[in-house]
What does this fold into?
Amino acid sequence: MKTFDVIGYPINLGCDKDGNELTPSILRRDGCYTSAKHHVNDLGDLPCTPRAAIIEEKFASHPKIKYLKPILTASRPLAERVMHSIAQQHIPLCVGGDHVMAFGSIAGVGLTKGADNFAVIYIDAHGDFNTEITSGTGNMHGMHLSYLMGYGEADIANFWGVSPLLKPQNIYFLGARALDPGEIEMAAKLNMYIRSSEQLNASDPAEVIVDILSDIKRKGIDHIHLSFDVDVIDPEYAPGTGVPEKKGIPPALAYTLIRLCMQSDLVKSVDIVELNANLDQGRITERAMQQVLKIILE
Ligand SMILES: [Mn+2]
It folds into this structure.
């Protein structure tokens, strides 16, 4: 029996779009945080300033990163809550919000474990390792992994007092299909593990996950942080997300990947992000997220 701590994090500052902030309460209302098999503590939502309240602050704290200071401010209590959950041997289940949430959640894992002692399985259409130099949008939800890895502007990379908090060789990207030129360059330079949606659609998911898990175990790592962005799913089945990308994976494949990860018993912290109810159609993306939570908690 596992104990999950649900940490709602209704942030929408990383994507500069409204809608993600609704997700924690929607999923709570849908009854997603119940499990027949595991303990689930719903710790409620952490405070996140809504974008609509501070639009005039967009570039006030950084010329190239929107809402940088409010994002940094909001990330600290999340990291602390994640650290607290892990210290109690609970599994923090962080519910965004947009993916900038991971700047705090992964930092919490890194500060607890140390960069060499955990892996991230990052299921997402995007790479999220732009920097303030390579980002085309200034949206921080596409940059946080760079800072966690110690790249980009030093002040941000050093925000947590320890850098790097995450090793590029310990991240496994699944479903990426929209890397920006700066990310492609960095991925090649750092020899990062990336399996695109096209590659996944042509592979046996069990083989993919077995290979990743054996690599992780070979490194002596016993903590996997699973970070799931619903935009990995093809927009035909999951339109309710801020930055949809064509040629994704079908929902069933996303569920299988998550189930295989969870069955390893190495997943000890989780993000689920980027459901935007304002952009959803017939609540189909919401239902996909319900299914994802069901699999995580089964
Ligand atoms: Mn994404």
In short: Residues 99, 124-126, 229, 231, 243, 274 surround manganese (II) ion (CB under 6 Å). Residues 97 and 212 are 27 Å apart (CA to CA). Residues 68-87 form the longest helix (20 residues).
